[in-house]
Automatic annotation (TrEMBL):
Keywords: Glycosidase, Hydrolase
Coiled-coil regions listed: none
Reactions catalysed according to its record: Hydrolysis of terminal non-reducing N-acetyl-D-hexosamine residues in N-acetyl-beta-D-hexosaminides
Protein name: beta-N-acetylhexosaminidase
Keyword Hydrolase listed: yes
EC numbers: 3.2.1.52
Positions of the Glycoside hydrolase family 3 N-terminal domain: 25-292
Record gene name: nagZ
Organism phylogeny: Bacteria, Pseudomonadati, Thermodesulfobacteriota, Desulfobacteria, Desulfobacterales
UniProt family annotation: Belongs to the glycosyl hydrolase 3 family.
Amino acid sequence: MIQFNFQSIPDLAGQRLILGFDGQTLNAELKHLITEYRTGGIILFRPNIDSADQLRRLCMDARKYALDQGLPDLFVAVDQEGGQVARLRNPFTEFPGNPHMRTLEDARQFARITASELSDMGINMNMAPVMDVAPPDVDSIMKDRVFTGDADRVSQLGTTVIQGLQEGGIMAVAKHFPGIGRTVKDSHFFLPELDAELSDLKQTDLVPFDAAKKAQVSGIMLSHILYPRLDPHWQASLSKRIAYDLLRTDMGYQGLVMTDDLDMKAISHDMDTCIYRIMTAQIDMALVCHAGPNIAEARDAAMRYLEKDRELYESGRICVRRILAAKETFLV
């Protein structure tokens, strides 16, 4: 059983963050994120990776350092979808990506090999699979990253990947809820909108996420897309209506819920507002994927709201219990 001080505001705030960093070793910056910010996890990108030996040492050193500080083990996350979004390249197995995954055996092979390679590096969370549905008549921003086919086919291939990753000890994170396959703008640079009724989403976009829930996917990532028929004011990653009312209450999902990267251009709000919205929506974890002032601002805002708002403090404890339960299952 993971030991955790639920009275500690810094620990409660830190466990709800997954943070990026510069460097390829357990350097002073990474130590600071662990010791001072008490981060629940880290996320890796290409600049963090030089070789298999270096990557394994980085992941193992960071996880051991967190444990040595009396903290829970770290989530170590990466985006390893295959194709254009694969942080680990040669000598790791390079898959062509979801559009080229034609059979369930393709999906099983991808998941089995990917889980083995990630686990060997000390990585324990894959921000995959993409569960978005891209209709053939839409020039989807996701067309090079989605499984080909309708919602049922996406569900079949995606849940096969989820099961294979998790059987191999790697937490799978389905994305990007409630679905961005019909959007044509890139949320890295813009705030896209999807003006669809909930009834329409339930027939298409939400089908794979319901299947992922039934497959006991470890995590679901929220998109940065605005769905004005669901919430006219806030994109999914900041929306209580979408993250709590729809995903948690209506669909009954009980695993981890996390934002996409809060450094993306679709997020135009200040970090204080973002963290308040995330905590109000009972979103478990916020991703801040690049070194910079947003990391400190996110952590400071989380601390401030936990200290002054009893309701956010109590709901925050529930979120951290979910985080620790996932760590108990996959990391211990």
